[in-house]
Structures are given as C-alpha cells and as structure tokens.
Amino acid sequence: MKASTLLLLAGLATFATSCGQDAASKKMADEAQARVVASIKQILVNTRDTSSLGSVRTWYASEVPNIIKLDPNAAKVYENHATLLKQVAADQLKFSSDPILTPEQGQSILRTYQKLVDESAANVSQLTNLASSKTTMSEAEQRQFVAGLAGKEQHQLELTQYFSKRTAATIEQKTQQKKGRENFQKVWGHE
Q1: Sign of the torsion formed by the C-alpha atoms of 132, 135, 138 and 143
Q2: In this structure, what are the phi and psi dihedrals at residue 100, rounded to the nearest 5 degrees?
Q3: Which of 9, 51, 128, 156 could form a disulfide with 120 if both were Cys (CB 3.0 to 4.6 A apart)?
Q4: Which among 161, 133, 160, 131 has a CA at the least distance from the CA of 71?
Q5: Can you list the pairs that 97-102 forms with residues at least 24 positions away whose Cβ atoms lie under 8 Å?
Q6: Residues of the chain whose pLDDT is less than 50?
C-alpha cells in the first residue's frame, strides 16, 4: 500500500476511535448531569425551611458550575441560616418578654437578634448574588468564596447560640437574685 493510503486509514481509525470516545464521554457527562439534577431535586425536596427556599432555588437553577453548586460549603450556608432562623424564632420572644427584664432590655434583645438575622441573610444574599450574576471568578475562586461564606455563616450561627445562652444565663441569674431578695425579706423582714 502506498503511504498516503496508510495515512488515510490511520486517520479514519483515529477518527472512529475518537468518535467512540466522544460518544462515551457524552454518555458519562449525561449520566453525571442526571446525578447532579437528582441530587439538586433531593436537596430541594428535603428543605423544610421555606423562608430561604427561593434563594436555594435561585442557587441551584443558576449557571454556576455544578461542582460549586454541590460543594458541601454551599449547602452548609443554607443549613446554618435555617438553623439560625429556627433558634431566633424559638428564643427571641421567650427572652424579650420575660417578666424579670425591663422593657428596654427586651427591646435590646429583639434588636440584637434582628441584627444577627440580618447579617446571616446578607451571607445568603451574597451566595445568591454569585448565582445570579455573570462572574469572572474561576471555579477555584468561586469555591474559596463559597467556603468563606460558609465560615462567616457558621460564625453567625455560633454568635446566635452564644447570645441565646448568655441571655438565658442572665435571666436565670436575675431570677435567682430576685428569689434571694424575696427569701431574705421573708426571713428577716427587710432587705
């Protein structure tokens, strides 16, 4: 055979092999995409807190690469935000309306909880903004950004938990002091 014929046959063999690889690669990519879509649907179905559901849907429907969407840190931002909201909902009115506190102290507790919620919502908003804007960040930079937001949101949750524990301890201390004064008054007739 002539060299040109051999070269043509080698090119056809390479082309046929690469077409097979392209088909196999496409099949693998389609399967990976199906797994991503299934996991996103699972996350959306399991979301119990509906207050941040819109931002979660925006995040997962965005054009952010799937590797970023499925980063555990992204899910952690939403989970910590939901946990923070649940804790604030449980503690805010209970502490601010405690009869041992003055109305000013109750208002201060409400303002502090609102500030913590606002800062947490800002973190979620930044994550949603990443999804809704065309970013020039590389995937590595996006992952670092999401990891930073996850760290900030974890810190917000810890601050909220600390504030709740501190407020409960302060209320308990004031209650004990009041009982001590009442007992002293009962036993000795004066304070």
Answers
A1: negative
A2: -75, -20
A3: 156
A4: 131
A5: 98/171, 100/171, 100/174, 100/175, 100/178, 101/171, 101/174
A6: 1-21, 32, 47, 49
pLDDT of residue 80: 92
For the chain, which residues make up each domain, given as ranges? 1-46, 49-188
pLDDT of residue 131: 73
Per-residue confidence (pLDDT) for residue 53, from 0 to 100: 60
SS (H, E, C) the chain: CCHHHHHHHHHHHHHHHHHHHHHHHHHHHHHHHHHHHHHHHHHHHHCCCCCCHHHHHHHHHCCCCHHHHCCHHHHHHHHHHHHHHHHHHHHHHHHHCCCCCCHHHHHHHHHHHHHHHHHHHHHHHHHHHHHHCCCCCCHHHHHHHHHHHHHHHHHHHHHHHHHHHHHHHHHHHHHHHHHHHHHHHHHHCCC
CA dihedral 159, 133, 145, 71 (to 10 degrees): 90
pLDDT of the residue at 15:
41
